[in-house]
């Protein structure tokens, strides 16, 4: 099994409320921000030295995660670590012009020498407030955007596009990506509909934070849609992301996270869901959505238990998740949204994974397709 690290490039500084969205610009201190970005590089470097198979970033706005434009951090990281596999997991596609997204990734794949993977995601409901995106249009707009990104990355001649949400008389990407037909693309599979779309588009499937025992239906939908599209995913096409914290003992792991995480803290905590829906509803109303129209239920958080404990405990948790999911890639999200862990704790956790978990997981026979 492959082991990947998701690093949010967390802001390590005094904030009045990490759970508030959006964060107040006046709270930002440049000395803390620059140090935090350096911490992000150090966490990625520790993961690379520890044998992680991919170093992953994501796009978030107005939060304590300092990657609203993750491509810039990924390009800089590629210069520091010229042999590392790097992924942007991912871009919140409904917020952007898909042609620009395709250009950014084509250029980044050249800068990284063909080491790029990326995800195209719908984003969380609060993200739609960033640029005034209508959440009631998000699914259709996202799916059209994915098709347009792939077409732009693979079409050898200029072409036009006349869709419901995007129109262009002339599209001609230059430069083209290094990897052919394009870098591997991951799409969310946190619902049956999104899993089927990932299978139909011949993309990797990413399952984030769901309880493993609840993942069987989406994995089956992904494989079924892939078969209908004429291909068969392997375990390597399935990534499972979960919050994680590993210490030398179960007791130490619980002590380090007690009363902080993941018990009800952070932007994505269950008790904050009403706030997220209210923000998204307000944004959609401004965009002309029907009053009282329900949000897409697949956008609601569905958190399972984190990987938490000693290396032995977490290895058993991963084996149990693999039994339900059949994934060939596990992605550790070590710093939660509320950023309660210190940089030193994160580094220790990464190094412990490298010493104790990665050799065991890399020694696995390939998971069943």
Regions with little confidence, pLDDT below 50 for 5+ residues? 262-277, 279-289
Average of the residue pLDDT scores: 88
Order of helices and strands: EHEHEHEHEEEHEHEHHEHEH
Radius of gyration: 20 Å
Mass-distribution shape:
globular
Protein name: Luciferase-like domain-containing protein
Domain Luciferase-like: 36-323
InterPro entries: Bact_Lucif_Oxidored (IPR050766), Luciferase-like_dom (IPR011251), Luciferase-like_sf (IPR036661)
Keywords: Monooxygenase, Oxidoreductase
Walk me through what this model shows.
It is a single chain. With 369 residues, the protein is α/β, with parallel strands linked by helices. The protein has a single domain, classed as TIM Barrel. The chain is built from ten helices and eleven strands. It has helices at residues 30-49, 70-80, 98-111, 138-154, 192-200, 216-228, 250-257, 273-286, 311-325, 343-362; strands at 2-6, 54-57, 86-92, 116-121, 159-162, 167-171, 185-188, 204-208, 238-246, 307-309, 329-333. The radius of gyration is 20 Å and the shape is globular. It comes from Streptomyces graminofaciens. This is Luciferase-like domain-containing protein. Pfam families: Bac_luciferase.
Question: Quick recap of the structure?
Answer:
The protein is of the alpha/beta class and 369 residues long.
SSE blueprint and pairings:
Blueprint: E1 2-6, H1 30-49, E2 54-57, H2 70-80, E3 86-92, H3 98-111, E4 116-121, H4 138-154, E5 159-162, E6 167-171, E7 185-188, H5 192-200, E8 204-208, H6 216-228, E9 238-246, H7 250-257, H8 273-286, E10 307-309, H9 311-325, E11 329-333, H10 343-362
Parallel strand pairs: 1-2, 1-11, 2-3, 3-4, 4-7, 7-8, 8-9, 9-10, 9-11
Antiparallel strand pairs: 5-6
